[in-house]
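Training component of the fellowship. As part of building independent skills, the fellow (R.M.) carried out the full modelling exercise for a liganded target. The chosen ligand was glutamic acid. The inputs are recorded below so that the supervisory panel can assess the work.
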Amino acid sequence: MAELNKVRVRFAPSPTGGLHLGGVRTVLYNYLFARQHNGRFILRIEDTDQSRYVPGAEEYIFNCLKWVGLEPDESVIHGGSFGPYRQSERKALYRQYAEQLVKEGYAYYAFDTPAELEEMRSRYKTDQNPSPQYDHTVRSAMRNSLAMSESEVQKLLAENARHVIRIKMPEAETVRFTDMIRGEVSFNTAVVDDKVLLKADGMPTYHLAVVVDDHLMEISHVFRGEEWLPSAPVHILLWRYLFGAEAMPQWAHLPLILGPNGKLSKRDGAKYGFPVFAMNWTDPATGELTEGFKEKGFLPEAFINLLALLGWNDGSEQEIFSKDELVEKFSLERVHSGGAKFDYEKAKWFNHEWIKKLQVSGLREQVKQVLGNSGIRVTDEQLLDNVLALVKERCTLLTDFAEQAGFFFKAPGKYDMDAVKPKWNETKQAFFLKLLQAYNPKDSWKPDELETLFKEMVTAQKIKVGELMLPLRIMLVGGKFGPGVFQIAGLLGKEETVLRIRKFLDLLQ
Ligand code: GLU
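Fellow's submitted model of the complex:
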């Protein structure tokens, strides 16, 4: 793609809850496009609907972006010269645009009370039209500046009568635009209602605010979810009326992310046991916690990677992409318009690949946290590095390190006794006592030496190696898991290995 002039893109969340997969994917595509074109990525908080405002949601959004490493260049936190970046702080700015639209005949004052609106809905309700809209078919019968006399309207305005400003949708016009993903898209204005642009409290609605701010913030390209496509005709007309069609940004409506039964919902997550939010989100109203990818044990690298592929591929078989590679290879031409199916097993596969791919240094801090959560404090950094190198292939999620790495730092608190006890006998007891004796004078403590010694001693006993290796594993690990048992003993060191064997033998007595 040719280098574009001044690419400025934005993510414009409403602080109404946690960020889910789809939201972060919108962030990602914005971010990749901005980086690709040496552009700027802006985060604008769209909080004009105060009734839907949820405390904590804004902070949550910033924390998420920090976790995934997709931070904006301009925002409430990051600053920038196009602020304020929170719409509620821009309130004073919007009215003039709404008034301009009224003056030019593209919008009108509407004085209808909630009761009058209700009355209209029941009056026009039919089987074919169960929820009538405020549109060209009813507007002349309502209390607005199109239906009332000029003097009546002026009188009401002078009295400060409660009113909103509505867009006057053309009765029968086809509004077209070229979506960067979908190509030609067209809408018939006859079926679109006269949306409120400015509310009675002077706050703009989303429709007015989004257009005014995309203009004032010099946004060049808009990436947003497909759920916003029905609003596009309103936005396109507003652009045309206020700033001219040529000034309009280019649009890209991203495909829906689908769950097992259509559009991915929070309920799918609860039902099928996978997270839908980027991070844990507790709804302050209900106190209900919804699990997030971070806490579930996903790496940010894997999360970004799997999101990138929900709707895009580079045309090859390649599936693992780093953020830098995505910046290099991402292209809108290869984003498809059909819904993208989210598969949790595949998401885990991505994470496993990333755990394998990352150096130990890229896992250290996160694993320390996982271990910390199960009460294990790591003091020996060198041991941690060795353990990580040994067990990381076995971990699909970061949380798996609690089991796979924890026992290196803390002796097992409980044992899988069923794996040992039924087959335990005098010979085995004697074998392990002899093993302890053999360990006693040893100075060097290497896994292959330990293995050779163990196997030689077993041969002399005429017992199958496995019959004795499993109990050794249970003694050191607590259960039937983990890497090679002599690798484990090697890392635990002589003293700790001896201690654990002895403790277990005592327990069996
Ligand atoms: N505030 C809208 C949202 O919550 C923004 C939609 C858009 O990007 O235009 O997603």
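The panel noted the following from the submitted structure. The pocket of glutamic acid is lined by residues 12-14, 46, 206, 210, 224, 228 (CB under 6 Å). The chain has a mean pLDDT of 95.
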